[in-house]
Amino acid sequence: MDAACTVEQDEIRRAVREVVTKRRAAEGVRAAVRTPAGYDAALWDALAGRLGLPGLALPEEHGGAGCGVTELALAGEELGRTLAPSPLFATAVLAAPLLLGLGTAGQRAALLPRVASGDLTAALAVPGAALGAALGLTGDNRGAWAGGGRAGGVQATAATGSWRLYGQVDQVLDGHSAGLLLVAAHTGGFARSRTLLFLVRGDAPGLVRTRRTALDETRAQARLELRDVEAELLGDSAGDDVLPALADVGERAAAVLAAEAVGAADEALARTLGHVEEREQFGRPVGSFQAVKHRLADVYVAVCAARSAAYYAAWAAGAAAVPAGSGAGIALACALDALRTAASEAVQLHGGIGFTWEHDAQLFFKRASGDELLFGPAHRLRAHAAERAGLFTGHPDAVAAAGAAV
Questions:
Q1: Strand ranges in 192-295 using DSSP code E only, listed in sequence order
Q2: Residue of 74, 26, 83 whose CA lies nearest to 53
Q3: Which whole-number Å values give the CA distances from 157 to 60, 104, 233, 270, 288, in the listed order?
Q4: CB atoms within 10 A of CB 283
Q5: How wide is the angle at C-alpha 100 spanned by C-alphas 203 and 228, nearest 5°?
Q6: Are 22 and 43 members of one domain?
Q7: Does 397 map to a domain?
Q8: Are both 365 and 252 inside the same structural domain?
Q9: Keywords assigned by UniProt (predicted)?
């Protein structure tokens, strides 16, 4: 792995930072999350139309730029600095790879160019509060989240020329505004139950979408109620590759999430440093006290370590020679810990104002907590990574595998 960014990667980072910096004010973020869509439509038009971010990691034959996970992670890092709400993660990181990997030629041709242009946003809907499990981040995704014939979640029934879905999904990122939904549903009855993915139009009859109140307002969530909704099977009828495909998407998603968290942590640290340099106590800047220096030095080290892990995870997710599971979960755990630490110190070292609703510090703390609730927690990310590496099984290759994962 070459740790240095290429000229093209630096240009992607610069262009994204230039666009999002114009919307950097906290009031801009708060105003965006209060819109019906939950994000700034003008910012999304710029990210999609001017920069082409939704198609950054899609092949050129489908209207994309032909880049990889690393470029998408660098863009995510810049978006994380401002906590800018957008459908980029749900569309380009979760849904688009599934359309590309599992879709038929006709589905790819019809949907991916619209996704790449930003004209069509998409969202992934999995049963219950099990997004981390479904993506294989906190455990084997062949586990209980997929149903195994149990009641609950979403049930799929074959109909003449189509499928019908019935059920409810409670936590769908950007599910209230997405034009296309990828819904994980059970089919085959109790004895042969399996999980398949289905395409559902955002305006399909029988579909009720309700935006939920979330801890982190910058990641909008929705509840989907499917009442005999017409759906199209994603891909062919085999369905054998759904769970491995979800796990592969989980690797990519964890790398991008880690980069987002690193960007947010770096920004929280920078704002705290600026405050302690200006704020005076006992006739001297707060930042001149050694105890404060030590605390912020610890945050700096954590952010640097998390950035290294995130960059490696992004590179590994797109490297064919690197085995799956080579550090994405560990990188996400490190990044979430770094963001929580940076946000906590921001709240503390800003003094009384840091505890107020009007200050930005609470936005960073809620991002760390919200991502842990959706994709973690951090200790389960680490535990699953250790299990995959054989760290505690006594396997002769455990040491080498653990080294690769870290």
A1: 194-201, 207-212, 221-233, 280-281, 284-285
A2: 74
A3: 36, 20, 11, 53, 66
A4: 5
A5: 30
A6: yes
A7: no
A8: yes
A9: FAD, Flavoprotein, Oxidoreductase
Peptide bond preceding 377 in cis form (omega within 30 of 0)? yes
Residue with tokens 């680490």: 382
Please tell me whether residue 59 adopts helix, strand or coil conformation.
coil
> For the whole model, what pTM was predicted?
0.90
Q: How far apart are CA 388 and CA 372, in angstroms?
A: 20
Q: Give the SS3 label for residue 36.
A: coil
For 348-364, write each residue's pLDDT tens digit.
Answer: 998 888 888 788 899 99
Domain boundaries, position 105: 7-121
For 92, what's the count of Cα atoms within 13 Å in the CB-facing half-sphere?
Answer: 33
What is the DSSP-derived secondary structure letter of residue 49?
I
User: Distance between CA atoms of 258 and 277, rounded to whole angstroms?
Assistant: 29
> Which residues, 6+ apart, have CB-to-CB distance to 368 below 8 Å?
261, 264, 336, 339, 340, 343
Mean pLDDT of 220-230: 93
Tell me the CATH number at 176: 2.40.110.10
Please say which residue of 66, 90, 121 terminates a domain: 121
Claim to verify: residue 146 and residue 115 sit in the same structural domain: no
Comparing CA positions, the residue from 313, 334, 336 lying closest to residue 255 is 313
Amino acid identity of residue 155, one-letter, is: Q
The angle subtended at Cα 291 by Cα 343 and Cα 307, nearest 5°, is: 40
Q: Tell me 351's DSSP state.
A: G
Least confident of 90-99, 249-258, 354-363: 354-363
> What is the DSSP secondary-structure string of 100-163?
HHHS-HHHHHHHHHHHHHTSS-EEEE-STT-HHHHTTSSS-TTSGGG-TT-SSSEEEEEETTEE
Helix (H, G, I), strand (E, B) or coil at 335: helix
Q: What is the DSSP letter of 324?
A: T
Query: CA Rg, the chain, in Å?
Result: 21
User: How far is the C-alpha of 331 from the C-alpha of 311, rounded, in Å?
Assistant: 9
Separation CA 29–CA 220 (nearest Å): 12
HSE, CB side, 13 Å, CA atoms: give it for residue 274: 6
Is residue 159 packed enough to be buried (19+ CB in 10 Å), middle (13-18) or exposed (0-12)? exposed
CA distance 341 to 205: 45
What is the sign, positive or negative, of the torsion defined by CA atoms of 54, 131, 142, 111?
negative
Residue 144 has pLDDT above 80, yes or no: no
Structure tokens at 276: 């302690």
